[in-house]
Amino acid sequence: MANDPEEKQPSANLPPEPSAPKTPAAGGEPASKPAETPAAPAAAKPAAPPVPAAAKPAAPPRPPAPPAPPKEGPVALDNDLVKRYKEKFGSAILESWIDRKQTILVVARELLAEIALYSRDDEKFDWLSDLTAVDWPKREKRFDIVLLMYSFEKNERLRLKVHASAEERVPSVQGIWSTANWMEREAFDMFGVVFEGHPDLKRILLPDEWQGYPLRKDYDILTQDTAWIRENLGIESGQ
Amino acid sequence: MPDERIPFATHADHTVLGADEIVLNMGPQHPSTHGVLRVKLRLDGEKVIGSECVIGYLHRGVEKIAEHRTYTQFAPYVDRMDYVAAVSNGLGYCEAVEKLLGAEAPPRARVIRTILTELQRIASHLFWLGTHALDIGALTPLFYCLREREEILKIFEKFCGARLTTHAFRIGGLQYEAYDELESDVERFCKPFDKRVDEYESLLTENRIWVGRTKGIGILTAKEAIDYGASGPVLRASGVKWDIRKAMPYAAYDQYQFDIPVGKNGDTYDRYIVRMEEMRQSRLICLQAIENIPTGPIMGKVGKVLKPPPGEVYHAIEAPKGELGYYIVSDGTTQPYRIKIRPPSFINLEAFDKMIRGHLVADVVAIIGTLDIVLGEVDR
Amino acid sequence: MLMNVLHFVISIWVPLVCAVIIVAVLPLVTGYMVLMERKVMADMQARLGPMRVGPHGLLQPIADAVKLLIKEDIIPDEADKAIFWFAPLISVTAAMLAVSPLAIGPWFQIAELNVGLLFVVGISALGIFGIVLGGWSSNSHYSLLGALRSAAQLVSYETAAGMAIVGGLLLAGTLSTREIIQAQDDYGTWFAFAAPVGFFIYIVASIAETNRAPFDLPEAESELVAGYMTEYSGFRWALYFLAEYVNMVVVASIATTLFLGGWLRPFAGTPAFNFLDYLPSLLMLGVGAYCFYRAPKQPVKVQSLFMVAVGLMMFVVAIILFAPLIPAVANMLPGLKPGLHGAFWFLFKVGAYVYLFMWLRFTFPRYRFDQLMRLGWQFLIPLSIVNVMGIGVALVLHRHWGWSHFTAFGLTTLITLAVAGWLGWAGEKHDAEHAFVGET
After folding, report:
1. ipTM surpassing 0.95, yes or no?
2. Chains that touch A (3 or more CB pairs under 8 A)
3. Which of A111, C83, C89, C429 has its CA 20 to 30 A from that of C141?
4. Sign of the torsion formed by the C-alpha atoms of B327, B329, B330 and B334
5. Confidence class for position A238, pLDDT limits 50, 70, 90
6. CB-count burial class (<10 Å; 0-12, 13-18, 19+) for B5
7. Residue C226: closest CA among chain B residues belongs to which residue?
8. Domain residues for A101?
9. Is residue C342 within a helix (H) or strand (E), and if so which, with residue range?
């Protein structure tokens, strides 16, 4: 059974929106910015001003209600949280939407580390629960790097997303959360996403000599198999 | 294959007495690395000055398999990750897919799920206690723990026919109605169970050797625990009072009263105490739940063919070992586009290097034990 | 003339035969000690233990021995082969030699040495060479660490054990095993009661010396796999195992000889307790009766027959043990009672001591190496020295100042206990101040 990205691949280049018929969320960011990548260097520094207001509005800490607005499917989102992020990082916040009551921010790759640091220190998303990647081979930037964060204080989860092509390097957040170390290694192992600034980026689950990146959609076990057969058995194909 | 030979000893100047540094390769075949974990230890005499975990010996590519199965077909696979807590894995997966579908299990199913999951937590903690004590040299608690665990497995067997990898739940609810004596069986197990926990504690809690072996070993402060992404008992023993069952209730946990035990020092002893207390709390939850199991359907409206609308969802539950999360991306077909599992063991194990530095070889097994890892879940 | 020849023959042949018997029997005894250990363990852990080979697993040791003998003998490629081959022999030889001066009842003794106890202590300490050499020659890290631990542990605890023995020797005034037991008979009390602290030190030190849990660090299976034995398999491994269990017998015999009155019956000097003479045969009778009771419940007929045979054997032993109590027989062979019953009581005490070892093993977690060393050097060794001084003072008080046994030994024991309390407290305080916190 080879890869079947063909059948499964949604034809669009942004993951969920195109096939979600119900909302106009997709392309147009309803909020403020036309998405343009040039990092917002101005916003990078001043951490202090927007912060004090930050902690309150989202949700009261204890009560076990999930995050804010209840709606089905991916819907564009522009609540206080997003506003604060946009205020701080401007155009680096490319998109924001809410899907199954879960907040998702798509941010510029170059500023990932800064935004992650801001999330941890100022927005109090101090616990990185997972970091992973999703492969959309049809897209120009095929990888989504997904950071799942949690705030003990607000009892809320937030998802940061970054788009990256296979050649692009993603800033490592290992210095912000030590736990990202193995998660990034796993993403590298499975997808070949290279994290800039990771101290020891090598394979973690697969053996060091493994060829290819198995969770990419175009990864084919037959290729791997054939390579092994050619090398070890000296025949063309095992099929 | 890069055949780096580990030298028997390497010269080192930073050791006490300028002694040579030994590289000790523990595992993957070792009696107390809990499976196929391999730890490369750098030793100065018996003191550990560095470590590296080599994992992946049990990697089965669960996430890749998921992309070639339908949502329903994949459900049994998750049982094989944390195979000592299969019911919890199944609950997490089923609820995640339900969330993705926008469906919900009916109340009866949710209560039964809660009961079984809590029993599974007890079983998992029992297994942890037995093996952890065995690692530290106490042989006997293991058999007492297995004796009680057996009772739980019998309940599972009666409920769904399987004992270990149960596949107890279905997406949308339960496939089978609970058997008639479920309540009485659970009650018969739970009623005397706190006495049993006392029995284990009498063997260990105040034992001088046990205290000496666990107090002050593998300390993880609250800040470090959060930094290392630790969850579950490991996080709580460091003093962070956080339990997904309370913070973001799922199944039927919002209906029951229970405490979240927390530790103070974040050492091996605290983690032991926290888990012991968790067993008692789980018992209380079970007892409350069997009081009043609602009647009604056991299967929600999910349809025969599961075709979640495109989008993505992250759903986490409090598995016995910590936060077990499923991040599922759907492209609108019957097969998940991507499933990422957040395995608590994998991420808790990451703190191992931090915890072991400066300790002795004997503490390696104590710390591996206290992290409560299952390699099936670490490697997936 | 004839008597002289006869005497010569006996003096040569009896020890020789005894030696052969001991060398032949010890492996069997070891095997059954392992079975006993497994049964005790099973009993404490709510299990049955070995049940399949023979009725109630009675033939398990034989099966194990056969398995070990025919197992492939693996010598690692990079091991130092000669030493690897030779090391277990050192251990097992030393352990078996140490049995020779032990008096198992007045009848059974291979060699009566006037330095008996010193010989035992010295020879059994040689066994450590086998362990260290075996660990080193295996060329494995686990073995090396195990051997190092073993060496350090033995050196530390041999000192404490030696000092505890010195305490007993002061009381006895002799090194000969027979005379030590005789001395206890004359005292009217076992030395365990005269020097309880010394006895306690010896128990702890002897557990550590024989590498038994909770001091089984050299072979801590959860850390070092099997310690110095990691690379050994089959017969060579069995030799180490044999040495370990023989060592257990040896330390138990020393403890029995020195502290528990050797072959003396409990309350040997008190006629009111003479009914205890019936205990040996009653015990055997009980075991035999139990065998008969279980015999019909065996699943296989052969096993039932085997069980009956064991029961009959027990009855025969009971009769033999009862014989000296019959006045007619006692008159004819006056040495029979101390000989047979002495052996029984000696072995009974050794068995009880070994049972204590097993009990501790299944109850306690394992010490860590630094804790073990601290216990040895900071607690046991100072305490054992104080104990020796205390016994010395008590003897002076008794012999020269005319104090009664009870007051003299009571006083010094109390003082020693006070010192023990202080040592414990000081150690605890020291630990608290130097609490080990991992590297930051």
Report:
1. no
2. B
3. C89
4. negative
5. low
6. exposed
7. B31
8. 10-44+69-204
9. helix C336-363
